[in-house]
């Protein structure tokens, strides 16, 4: 029986991962959330976890009350996440927290030699070089949860002798596909959260609407599959049935398909290499009738362009655009800035960040903080309402 830990167990990925654990009898040793103390306590009780971490210290007292007398080790803050990342006897740590906060726990688990199932894409965007190098050095496996990267990985199975020419990274286009900048002026949070195909947490759903998500995934793919920017073609595929594809040297293209349900890649990551029953709908291609493909609109969706420019330049710029985006998305969700301001702020940070090489994790954290401060200041100045 496999034993896992989950950071971000109360979120969209975390709760679906626990469904997989329930169905496939995976032992859950530790769980962590940010502030949803009630759901965390319920999960800890149901799955018999030995450790529980609530990141927000102010909620620790409440967690103590909810888990009183159960012999669960209670943790908080970054130290708590790092403790979970270094537990012995764990086969896989699923990192499904949202945002850059996942970077240090990922590096800690790798250092400890624990395999990782990675949903937390911001970790690779900001710290790809450190994460990949550390994983190689320690011989740690990174199982991929993001649907496109799981699809690329799945499309490579049995092809280790074959040369990859490039990949096709599919994008749904989000709720605002086909809209002009003028039409995007004044769109609401509710409209931006209305993803056509996927049910996900708020931050990634906004990233899908701005196409930042595809920019983050472009960077993620470069690190995971050792690709150059020109080897990645982004294709808008409105139906989200083809989850991405790999093109080989002979121009043969191998893709992974399925209904848009994260249970498939989550289960594949946790049970790899086994394919067993998964509680999702059957894919009926005849019900779809036809599948469509188009080029993305790089002018309107500025975040996508900013990500590609950032990763092409390298250094701290991917961390900077990611930090700017995290700050801007939080402000948009809080009703402080417009939808279009997200792309403008991310671009502004890209253009105003002096690039540097990354030597260690502090370089990444500093670039992230500087970008966030820049965005917060611009919003405070009233530039982006
Ligand atoms: N949802 C999806 O389908 C997909 C998501 N991803 C990626 O997976 C990650 C998670 O996404 P998603 O599940 O949608 O996000 P959600 O917002 O639904 O969930 C985020 C989870 O992270 C927890 N969390 C946030 N900050 C911390 C922290 N500092 N310490 C501990 N826990 C924390 C939250 O706890 P709390 O509930 O207490 O706030 C919650 O459990 C993101 O990086 C996203 O890009 C990738 C592909 C698909
Ligand atoms: C489910 C998943 O992996 C998301 O990252 C998804 O890709 C979002 O869809 P789009 O960014 O393509 O709209
Ligand atoms: Mn994805």
TrEMBL record:
<dbReference type="GO" id="GO:0030604">
    <property type="term" value="F:1-deoxy-D-xylulose-5-phosphate reductoisomerase activity"/>
</dbReference>
<keyword id="KW-0414">Isoprene biosynthesis</keyword>
<feature type="binding site">
    <location>
        <position position="146"/>
    </location>
    <ligand>
        <name>Mn(2+)</name>
    </ligand>
</feature>
<feature type="binding site">
    <location>
        <position position="10"/>
    </location>
    <ligand>
        <name>NADPH</name>
    </ligand>
</feature>
<feature type="domain" description="1-deoxy-D-xylulose 5-phosphate reductoisomerase C-terminal">
    <location>
        <begin position="143"/>
        <end position="225"/>
    </location>
</feature>
<keyword id="KW-0560">Oxidoreductase</keyword>
<feature type="binding site">
    <location>
        <position position="148"/>
    </location>
    <ligand>
        <name>Mn(2+)</name>
    </ligand>
</feature>
<dbReference type="Pfam" id="PF02670">
    <property type="entry name" value="DXP_reductoisom"/>
</dbReference>
<dbReference type="GO" id="GO:0016853">
    <property type="term" value="F:isomerase activity"/>
</dbReference>
<dbReference type="GO" id="GO:0051484">
    <property type="term" value="P:isopentenyl diphosphate biosynthetic process, methylerythritol 4-phosphate pathway involved in terpenoid biosynthetic process"/>
</dbReference>
<dbReference type="Pfam" id="PF13288">
    <property type="entry name" value="DXPR_C"/>
</dbReference>
<dbReference type="InterPro" id="IPR013644">
    <property type="entry name" value="DXP_reductoisomerase_C"/>
</dbReference>
<dbReference type="GO" id="GO:0070402">
    <property type="term" value="F:NADPH binding"/>
</dbReference>
<keyword id="KW-0460">Magnesium</keyword>
<feature type="domain" description="1-deoxy-D-xylulose 5-phosphate reductoisomerase N-terminal">
    <location>
        <begin position="4"/>
        <end position="128"/>
    </location>
</feature>
<feature type="binding site">
    <location>
        <position position="13"/>
    </location>
    <ligand>
        <name>NADPH</name>
    </ligand>
</feature>
<comment type="similarity">
    <text>Belongs to the DXR family.</text>
</comment>
<feature type="binding site">
    <location>
        <position position="148"/>
    </location>
    <ligand>
        <name>1-deoxy-D-xylulose 5-phosphate</name>
    </ligand>
</feature>
<feature type="binding site">
    <location>
        <position position="213"/>
    </location>
    <ligand>
        <name>1-deoxy-D-xylulose 5-phosphate</name>
    </ligand>
</feature>
<feature type="binding site">
    <location>
        <position position="172"/>
    </location>
    <ligand>
        <name>1-deoxy-D-xylulose 5-phosphate</name>
    </ligand>
</feature>
<dbReference type="GO" id="GO:0030145">
    <property type="term" value="F:manganese ion binding"/>
</dbReference>
<comment type="pathway">
    <text>Isoprenoid biosynthesis; isopentenyl diphosphate biosynthesis via DXP pathway; isopentenyl diphosphate from 1-deoxy-D-xylulose 5-phosphate: step 1/6.</text>
</comment>
<feature type="binding site">
    <location>
        <position position="120"/>
    </location>
    <ligand>
        <name>NADPH</name>
    </ligand>
</feature>
<feature type="binding site">
    <location>
        <position position="147"/>
    </location>
    <ligand>
        <name>1-deoxy-D-xylulose 5-phosphate</name>
    </ligand>
</feature>
<keyword id="KW-0479">Metal-binding</keyword>
<dbReference type="InterPro" id="IPR003821">
    <property type="entry name" value="DXP_reductoisomerase"/>
</dbReference>
<feature type="binding site">
    <location>
        <position position="12"/>
    </location>
    <ligand>
        <name>NADPH</name>
    </ligand>
</feature>
<feature type="binding site">
    <location>
        <position position="214"/>
    </location>
    <ligand>
        <name>1-deoxy-D-xylulose 5-phosphate</name>
    </ligand>
</feature>
<keyword id="KW-0413">Isomerase</keyword>
<comment type="function">
    <text>Catalyzes the NADPH-dependent rearrangement and reduction of 1-deoxy-D-xylulose-5-phosphate (DXP) to 2-C-methyl-D-erythritol 4-phosphate (MEP).</text>
</comment>
<feature type="binding site">
    <location>
        <position position="217"/>
    </location>
    <ligand>
        <name>Mn(2+)</name>
    </ligand>
</feature>
<feature type="binding site">
    <location>
        <position position="11"/>
    </location>
    <ligand>
        <name>NADPH</name>
    </ligand>
</feature>
<feature type="binding site">
    <location>
        <position position="201"/>
    </location>
    <ligand>
        <name>NADPH</name>
    </ligand>
</feature>
<dbReference type="InterPro" id="IPR036291">
    <property type="entry name" value="NAD(P)-bd_dom_sf"/>
</dbReference>
<feature type="binding site">
    <location>
        <position position="195"/>
    </location>
    <ligand>
        <name>1-deoxy-D-xylulose 5-phosphate</name>
    </ligand>
</feature>
<feature type="binding site">
    <location>
        <position position="121"/>
    </location>
    <ligand>
        <name>1-deoxy-D-xylulose 5-phosphate</name>
    </ligand>
</feature>
<feature type="binding site">
    <location>
        <position position="122"/>
    </location>
    <ligand>
        <name>NADPH</name>
    </ligand>
</feature>
<feature type="binding site">
    <location>
        <position position="217"/>
    </location>
    <ligand>
        <name>1-deoxy-D-xylulose 5-phosphate</name>
    </ligand>
</feature>
<protein>
    <recommendedName>
        <fullName>1-deoxy-D-xylulose 5-phosphate reductoisomerase</fullName>
        <ecNumber>1.1.1.267</ecNumber>
    </recommendedName>
</protein>
<dbReference type="InterPro" id="IPR026877">
    <property type="entry name" value="DXPR_C"/>
</dbReference>
<feature type="domain" description="DXP reductoisomerase C-terminal">
    <location>
        <begin position="257"/>
        <end position="374"/>
    </location>
</feature>
<feature type="binding site">
    <location>
        <position position="208"/>
    </location>
    <ligand>
        <name>1-deoxy-D-xylulose 5-phosphate</name>
    </ligand>
</feature>
């Amino acid at each position: 029986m496999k034993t896992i830990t989950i950071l971000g167990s109360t979120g969209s990925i975390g709760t679906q991962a626990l469904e997989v654990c329930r169905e496939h009898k995976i032992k859950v040793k530790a769980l962590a959330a940010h502030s949803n103390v009630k759901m965390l306590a319920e999960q800890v009780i149901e799955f018999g976890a030995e450790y529980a971490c609530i990141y927000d210290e102010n909620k620790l007292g409440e967690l103590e009350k909810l888990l009183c007398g159960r012999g669960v080790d209670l943790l908080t803050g970054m130290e708590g996440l790092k403790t979970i990342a270094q537990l012995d006897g764990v086969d896989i740590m699923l990192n499904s927290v949202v945002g850059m906060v996942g970077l240090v726990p990922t590096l800690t688990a790798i250092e400890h030699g624990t395999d990782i199932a990675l949903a937390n894409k911001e970790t690779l965007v900001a710290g790809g070089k450190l994460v990949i190098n550390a994983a190689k050095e320690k011989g740690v496996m990174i199982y991929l949860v993001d649907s496109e990267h799981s699809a690329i990985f799945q499309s490579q199975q049995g092809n280790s002798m074959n040369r990859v020419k490039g990949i096709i990274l599919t994008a749904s286009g989000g709720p605002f596909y086909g809209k002009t900048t003028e039409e995007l002026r004044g769109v609401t949070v509710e409209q931006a959260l209305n993803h056509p195909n996927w049910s996900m947490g708020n931050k990634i759903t906004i990233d899908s609407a701005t196409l930042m998500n595809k920019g983050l995934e472009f960077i993620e793919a470069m690190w995971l599959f050792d690709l150059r920017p020109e080897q990645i073609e982004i294709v808008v595929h409105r139906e989200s049935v083809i989850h991405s594809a790999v093109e080989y040297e002979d121009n043969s293209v191998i893709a992974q398909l399925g209904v848009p349900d994260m249970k498939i890649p989550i289960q594949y990551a946790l049970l790899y290499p086994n394919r067993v029953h998964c509680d999702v709908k059957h894919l009926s291609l005849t019900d779809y009738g036809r599948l469509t493909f188009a080029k993305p609109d790089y002018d309107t969706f500025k975040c996508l362009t900013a990500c590609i420019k950032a990763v092409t330049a390298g250094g701290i710029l991917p961390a900077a655009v990611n930090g700017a985006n995290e700050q801007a998305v939080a402000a948009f969700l809080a009703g402080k800035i417009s939808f279009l301001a997200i792309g403008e702020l991310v671009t502004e940070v890209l253009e105003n960040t002096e690039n540097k090489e990354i030597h260690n994790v502090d370089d990444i954290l500093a670039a992230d903080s500087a970008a966030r401060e820049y965005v917060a200041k611009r919003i405070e100045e009233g530039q982006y309402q």
